[in-house]
Amino acid sequence: MSQQPAFTRAAPNERRQSLIEACARVLAQKGAAGVSVRTICAEAGVSAGLLRHYFSGVSEAIAETYRWTGNRIDAALLQAVEEAGSDPRARLLAYVTASFRPPIASPDLLATFVAFWSLTRSDAQVAAVHDEVYGQFRAELQELLLAWKPCLADPHLAAIALTALIDGLWLELSLGQAPFSAAEADAFVGKWLDSVAG
């Protein structure tokens, strides 16, 4: 517990954030079944009682870790959009294809998401954050789709289908040894978008 004195001097927000990041690492390493107050606090290098000072329990800690993870991904996606310039199609493609490269295409992030997904049917707090994270993702996709093709027949359905396509390609790339490259995934998405646009 040599880390504990330095940790206790940290500001409350830093302590809470350290527990969230520790929870993410435990989820990636041990899955949902391996997460407990003890494993999160051991990973953070703090006493087991500290988690309950910042969260009502493990469920809230996992839900907040899901929210934090979703926000990190969202920031990476929006940065890719900004770097793409002003062309609406390029901005849409940048948003989509950022998922096919680090830091989003990552075995650790995939393992963390598998743990989140496994809890959405049994934990209402995690399920609510799941809906929030994916809802925001689809809303941003829909906005980018409409910026590219304002007369798109059903942008809501297109965003749902594109989310499923992204998840499938991201999953394969994050697992490693996918039968396609990130560049091929980019090209596939580009062709799919053009077919949707007619």
UniProtKB/TrEMBL annotation:
Name of this chain's protein: TetR family transcriptional regulator
Coiled coil: none
UniProt KW keywords: DNA-binding, Repressor, Transcription, Transcription regulation
DNA-binding region: 36-55
GO molecular function: DNA-binding transcription factor activity; transcription cis-regulatory region binding
Pfam assignment, any one: TetR_C_6
Membrane-crossing residue ranges in chain numbering: none
Domain HTH tetR-type: 13-73
Domain of life, per lineage: Bacteria
